[in-house]
């Protein structure tokens, strides 16, 4: 077992670092910005990634990508995150839509959708969750009925990140109400022209996600991905890419959360208190476990394996470190975090509140545990 | 980067696992009549003594991870072999490549069984600071059953002559523990990374103990029925076991990485080892506690096995620097590193 970069890995890391340093030269620290400013830089950053030919880094060359492996993508994301790069505004396109279309799309669909993602002129969102269907995603009720040349879709989606910037949606809808719940679902690459998108304010005041209303929205047959009734299988592919891409960034965010916490403690003169030192010791264990676990996961996938249920353990650990570090950081504030008129205090509280979502988004903590119980411990299904 | 087990490491895990399977139940046997060498003890000491030993110390290029894979397999079955304690003592001697030269053949081929004297009474850390009585050590495993002692002190490591051995009553009778008074060293060698290496041997065994406890608990959760269904179908039962599995995975990943960091002279090695030892102790104790809980009343009996995992977990967590001490060290080093970056 070897955790060192190979010479090729090192050379690539160097190339990436050189590019990033230049591309990030005029980009401010995202942590202190308003949401509008952050979205602005996310868009700028997406454009730079596309212009630099990084958007399809781990896509096959046949589809316009660079044909590099998951580890290269990990190295890129790691180097970007370490430098505090913005989050690219079309992450869903690059990390979920592209790979899913490559896996399940027809030649025509690939030709139609992939170039737009690589060029950065079509942004995507993920329309899976519904008001009545979150953890139990397969119970979704957004209904697609057959019409001439395609489908007429009615229903509501919710918690859709970045829908306000997207023009295409990875949309799950029920095409056969009579079939068993996993079999009646179809996956659409839906244009969002007829969608009504309303932003939702999160507990920290940001508006990252939305609700979407679909009233008689028409989607053509050409935009069915992976065949009518096969939506659940295709959705699982997307969710697997979502889990796979997680490991590429998570550990950096965990480490940064701990770094920021220590900075606050140093500033407040409590960094040597034994209770604080012990807390950092515990956070360090979890944060490093995320990093090392990610490396092992990438090692397995490089050796030809697929990421297993361990990704659920990594996600759990990551959420815990970031939540705990951010909570401690606000608690160290002068007034225990409750006076938020200073910039620093407000930013810390914003991060803490945002981190509460980490045990909900991308599959809740409880769902991760039930995956571990079933697939690692071989216990019966409990959901 | 090849962050996967090599073929050889997988083979070691399988071979030692098979030896350990044959010795299942030997930890319980120590409750009647005290510790006896399990059948695998001799073969382990004889055939696996070169695992993890660096070449200057007489090794054949086997990595520390090789050794830890073997020790983890033993921990999972609670095999009370002297091998892990012997290996920890050997590793204690392997921390400074420039001093000492090769270890004696009879140590490497297991004819001379060693144990490590690292912990100081009344202190939760290992003996790298000047203790009150510099020559007393505690929590020394298999002291009466070993042929030699390797001691750690502020001046370094040395083959120590025990002046007095006081057998203590161990929480885990399959791991006899003693207090030792050793003679002052004549020419100690620099400890280097020796204490880190020894601590990782203990961490690996803890990861094994955690895994064994989780396996036993999951087996119970899959088979015991109440309210007309197996209890593992209740989330109140299943989720804590999932947490135990997560903690155990974290601890094992930390341990493997720390071993790699020590072997390759990575500047981070210290903080990594402290994190690994702390996490491994916590994971093992937590898993064993959950294992007792899942067994209900049966878990509270001497007759059932869960308490054996808890006892071993406690003994190992306390040895080679207590888990709580390692956690604090990890915190201190992490804060220091961040301060250095910020200037
Ligand atoms: C910031 C953020 C961004 C998001 N972005 C997107 C997006 O872009 N696209 C998208 O489709 N979705 C998105 N989501 C939605 C997310 O996937 C869902 O919120 C999540 O799957 C949970 O569904 P829910 O909110 O309906 O909660 P519910 O499923 O109603 O869960 C409520 C609580 O009950 C628990 N629970 C439910 N079932 C069980 C069970 N069987 N056993 C034990 N506990 C259970 C849950 O763990 C949770 O604690 C986002 C969510 C957030 C917070």
Automatic annotation (TrEMBL), chain A:
<protein>
    <recommendedName>
        <fullName>Acyl-CoA dehydrogenase</fullName>
    </recommendedName>
</protein>
<dbReference type="InterPro" id="IPR052161">
    <property type="entry name" value="Mycobact_Acyl-CoA_DH"/>
</dbReference>
<dbReference type="InterPro" id="IPR009100">
    <property type="entry name" value="AcylCoA_DH/oxidase_NM_dom_sf"/>
</dbReference>
<comment type="similarity">
    <text>Belongs to the acyl-CoA dehydrogenase family.</text>
</comment>
<dbReference type="GO" id="GO:0016627">
    <property type="term" value="F:oxidoreductase activity, acting on the CH-CH group of donors"/>
</dbReference>
<dbReference type="InterPro" id="IPR037069">
    <property type="entry name" value="AcylCoA_DH/ox_N_sf"/>
</dbReference>
<keyword id="KW-0560">Oxidoreductase</keyword>
<dbReference type="InterPro" id="IPR046373">
    <property type="entry name" value="Acyl-CoA_Oxase/DH_mid-dom_sf"/>
</dbReference>
<dbReference type="InterPro" id="IPR013786">
    <property type="entry name" value="AcylCoA_DH/ox_N"/>
</dbReference>
<keyword id="KW-0274">FAD</keyword>
<dbReference type="GO" id="GO:0050660">
    <property type="term" value="F:flavin adenine dinucleotide binding"/>
</dbReference>
<dbReference type="InterPro" id="IPR036250">
    <property type="entry name" value="AcylCo_DH-like_C"/>
</dbReference>
<dbReference type="Pfam" id="PF00441">
    <property type="entry name" value="Acyl-CoA_dh_1"/>
</dbReference>
<feature type="domain" description="Acyl-CoA dehydrogenase/oxidase C-terminal">
    <location>
        <begin position="229"/>
        <end position="377"/>
    </location>
</feature>
<feature type="domain" description="Acyl-CoA oxidase/dehydrogenase middle">
    <location>
        <begin position="125"/>
        <end position="217"/>
    </location>
</feature>
<dbReference type="GO" id="GO:0005886">
    <property type="term" value="C:plasma membrane"/>
</dbReference>
<dbReference type="Pfam" id="PF02771">
    <property type="entry name" value="Acyl-CoA_dh_N"/>
</dbReference>
<dbReference type="InterPro" id="IPR009075">
    <property type="entry name" value="AcylCo_DH/oxidase_C"/>
</dbReference>
<keyword id="KW-0285">Flavoprotein</keyword>
<dbReference type="InterPro" id="IPR006091">
    <property type="entry name" value="Acyl-CoA_Oxase/DH_mid-dom"/>
</dbReference>
<feature type="domain" description="Acyl-CoA dehydrogenase/oxidase N-terminal">
    <location>
        <begin position="7"/>
        <end position="121"/>
    </location>
</feature>
<dbReference type="Pfam" id="PF02770">
    <property type="entry name" value="Acyl-CoA_dh_M"/>
</dbReference>
Automatic annotation (TrEMBL), chain B:
<dbReference type="InterPro" id="IPR036250">
    <property type="entry name" value="AcylCo_DH-like_C"/>
</dbReference>
<comment type="similarity">
    <text>Belongs to the acyl-CoA dehydrogenase family.</text>
</comment>
<dbReference type="Pfam" id="PF00441">
    <property type="entry name" value="Acyl-CoA_dh_1"/>
</dbReference>
<dbReference type="InterPro" id="IPR009100">
    <property type="entry name" value="AcylCoA_DH/oxidase_NM_dom_sf"/>
</dbReference>
<protein>
    <recommendedName>
        <fullName>Acyl-CoA dehydrogenase/oxidase C-terminal domain-containing protein</fullName>
    </recommendedName>
</protein>
<dbReference type="InterPro" id="IPR009075">
    <property type="entry name" value="AcylCo_DH/oxidase_C"/>
</dbReference>
<keyword id="KW-0285">Flavoprotein</keyword>
<keyword id="KW-0560">Oxidoreductase</keyword>
<feature type="domain" description="Acyl-CoA dehydrogenase/oxidase C-terminal">
    <location>
        <begin position="200"/>
        <end position="316"/>
    </location>
</feature>
<dbReference type="GO" id="GO:0003995">
    <property type="term" value="F:acyl-CoA dehydrogenase activity"/>
</dbReference>
<keyword id="KW-0274">FAD</keyword>
């Amino acid at each position: 077992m070897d955790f060192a970069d190979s010479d090729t890995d090192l050379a690539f890391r160097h190339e990436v670092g050189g590019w990033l340093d230049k591309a990030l030269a005029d980009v401010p620290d995202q942590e202190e910005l308003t949401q509008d400013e952050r979205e602005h830089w996310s868009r700028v950053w997406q454009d730079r990634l596309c212009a630099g030919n990084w958007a399809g880094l781990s896509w096959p060359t046949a589809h316009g990508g660079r044909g590099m492996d998951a580890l290269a993508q990990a190295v890129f994301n790691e180097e970007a995150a370490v430098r505090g790069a913005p989050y690219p505004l079309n992450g869903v396109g690059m990390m979920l839509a592209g790979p899913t279309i490559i896996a399940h799309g027809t030649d025509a669909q690939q030709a139609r959708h992939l170039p737009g993602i690589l060029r950065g002129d079509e942004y995507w969102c993920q329309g899976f969750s519904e008001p009545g269907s979150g953890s139990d995603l397969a119970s979704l009720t957004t209904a697609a009925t057959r019409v001439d040349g395609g489908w007429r879709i009615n229903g509501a989606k919710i918690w859709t990140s970045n829908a306000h910037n997207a023009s295409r949606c990875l949309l799950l809808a029920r095409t056969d109400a009579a079939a068993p719940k996993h079999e009646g679902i179809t996956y659409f690459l839906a244009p969002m022209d007829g969608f009504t998108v309303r932003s939702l304010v999160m507990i920290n005041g940001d508006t990252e996600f939305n609700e979407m209303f679909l009233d008689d929205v028409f989607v053509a047959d050409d935009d069915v991905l992976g065949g009518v009734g096969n939506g659940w299988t295709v959705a699982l592919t997307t969710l697997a890419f979502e889990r796979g891409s997680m490991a590429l960034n998570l550990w950096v965010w965990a480490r940064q959360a701990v770094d920021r916490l220590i900075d606050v403690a140093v500033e407040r003169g409590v960094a040597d208190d034994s209770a604080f030192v012990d807390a950092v010791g515990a956070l360090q264990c979890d944060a490093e476990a995320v990093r090392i676990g990610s490396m092992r996961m990438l090692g397995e996938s490089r050796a030809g394996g697929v990421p297993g249920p361990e990704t659920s353990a990594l996600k759990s650990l990551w959420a815990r470190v970031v939540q705990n570090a951010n909570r401690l950081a606000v608690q160290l504030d002068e007034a225990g975090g409750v006076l938020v008129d200073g910039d620093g205090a407000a930013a810390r509280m914003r991060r803490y509140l945002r981190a509460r979502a980490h045990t909900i988004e991308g599959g809740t903590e409880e769902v991760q545990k039930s995956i571990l119980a079933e697939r690692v411990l071989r216990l019966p299904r409990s959901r | 980067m090849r962050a996967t087990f090599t073929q050889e490491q997988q083979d070691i895990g399988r071979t030692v696992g098979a030896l350990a399977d044959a010795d299942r139940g030997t930890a319980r046997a120590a409750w009647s009549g005290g510790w006896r060498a399990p059948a695998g003890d001799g073969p382990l000491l004889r055939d696996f003594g070169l695992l993890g030993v660096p070449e200057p110390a007489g090794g054949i290029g086997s990595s520390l991870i090789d050794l830890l894979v073997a020790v983890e397999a033993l921990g999972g079955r609670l095999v009370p072999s002297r091998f892990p304690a012997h290996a920890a003592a050997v590793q204690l001697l392997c921390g400074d490549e420039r001093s000492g030269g090769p270890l004696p053949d009879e140590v490497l081929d297991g004819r001379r069984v060693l144990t490590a004297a690292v912990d100081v009474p009344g202190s939760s850390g290992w003996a790298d600071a000047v203790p009150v009585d510099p020559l007393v050590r505690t929590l020394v495993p298999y002291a009466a059953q070993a042929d030699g002692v390797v001691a750690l002190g502020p001046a370094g490591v040395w083959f120590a002559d025990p002046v007095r051995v006081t057998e203590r009553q161990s929480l885990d009778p399959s791991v006899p523990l003693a207090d030792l008074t050793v003679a002052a060293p004549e020419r100690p060698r620099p400890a280097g990374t020796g204490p880190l290496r020894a601590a990782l041997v203990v961490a690996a065994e803890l990861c094994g103990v955690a895994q064994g406890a989780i396996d036993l608990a999951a087996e119970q959760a899959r088979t015991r029925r109440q309210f007309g269904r197996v209890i593992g179908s209740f989330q109140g039962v299943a989720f804590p076991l999932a947490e135990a599995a997560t903690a155990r995975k974290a601890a094992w990943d930390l341990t493997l990485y720390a071993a790699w960091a020590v072997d390759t002279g990575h500047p981070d090695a210290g903080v990594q080892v402290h994190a690994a030892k702390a996490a491994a102790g916590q994971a093992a104790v937590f898993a064993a506690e959950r294992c007792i809980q899942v067994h209900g009343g049966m878990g509270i009996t001497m007759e059932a096995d869960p308490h054996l995992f808890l006892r071993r977990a406690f003994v190992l967590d306390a040895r080679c620097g207590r888990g709580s001490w390692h956690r604090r060290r990890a915190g201190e080093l992490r804060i220091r590193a961040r301060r250095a970056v910020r200037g």
